[in-house]
Amino acid sequence: MKERSGLRRGGGGMFCRNKAALWFWIVGTVVVATVVCVTGCTSRGLFGERLGKEPVLTVYFDEEKRTEKMPFEKYIEGVVAAEMDPKWPREALAAQAILARTFTLERLQRTGGVKKLHGTDVCTSHEHFQAYDASRVNSLVRAAVRSTRGKIVTYKGRPIRAWFHSSSGGVTATPAEGLGLPNSVAPYIRTVKDPGAAGKESAWKASFSAAEVGRALKKIGGFDGGEPRSIEIVERGPSGRAVTLDIDGKKVPAPAFRTAVGPDRMLSTLLDGISVKDGKVIMSGRGWGHGVGMSQWGALRMSKQGSTAEDIINYYYKGVKIERRWR
Prior knowledge:
By secondary structure, the protein is of the alpha+beta class. It is built from 9 helices and 16 strands. The protein has helices at residues 72-83, 90-111, 115-118, 139-147, 175-179, 210-220, 254-261, 296-304, 309-316, and strands at 21-27, 30-36, 56-61, 66-71, 122-123, 151-155, 158-159, 164-165, 204-209, 231-236, 242-247, 250-253, 271-277, 280-285, 294-295, 321-324. A 3-stranded mixed sheet has the order 4-3-5. The protein has a 3-stranded antiparallel sheet with strand order 7-6-16. The radius of gyration is 20 Å and the shape is globular. The model is unreliable at 4-49 (pLDDT under 50).
């Protein structure tokens, strides 16, 4: 699942028109199957040379607890407006639109969307799928989505895992660093210098009580909930991010620690320092978000320097193609 770290605080599978398609994914070591229907798909499938007709999605609105059918592109407008400042330059918004579209198709293929949770393809919760806010849609967002209509990012013919984040702090992360996932899940994502290093929350500090960190560690497992006495960084990744922490002699993955204490307070794992002192855990770092994939502030800087949406995407994702799946 994509992390909510945006600017508001923020192969060929078989598909059939108006019929169900069978998808498989792996949970642990068990192969699970589910039936997913995305209206308007052709037998060429999501991974075919073209999808043909624009799909219609079923959307669950979490706050209103209602379901609505919506054209795919209309849904993408609301996602882009929620995930990026809708007043930003068109090419930055266009890059975000391509990634939002890619993220949606990839998730539908890999997990069936939120069928098990809500009985729909997608929902408006950033915790379960992507953020969505139709009230922020403006003419710039509409133009960005329209100019990229049907376009997705692919690697070897398949939609990529289209992760993005707010600000990298100077250099982007590998999946292993930022998300605790094997780098093999996304070989097209590598560390790159981020032109948006001076973006939002480029440097930050945070302080937690040792008691609340102890409670957070209990969620991870292997800890009894007591206050930690010492925390050290014992392994860093290629981008300099903390990969492994030593907490009272126990190894803890840094991404898991960040999730446990709260990613809205520990803004990244690109740590300059972390220590326990006088009943508090004090840390400082750079960037906002997991650091994997496109940096939104980097996209802003590149767009202001004349880069196109395609330029931006090819900078952050290597060896990929941008393909149009419907017109």
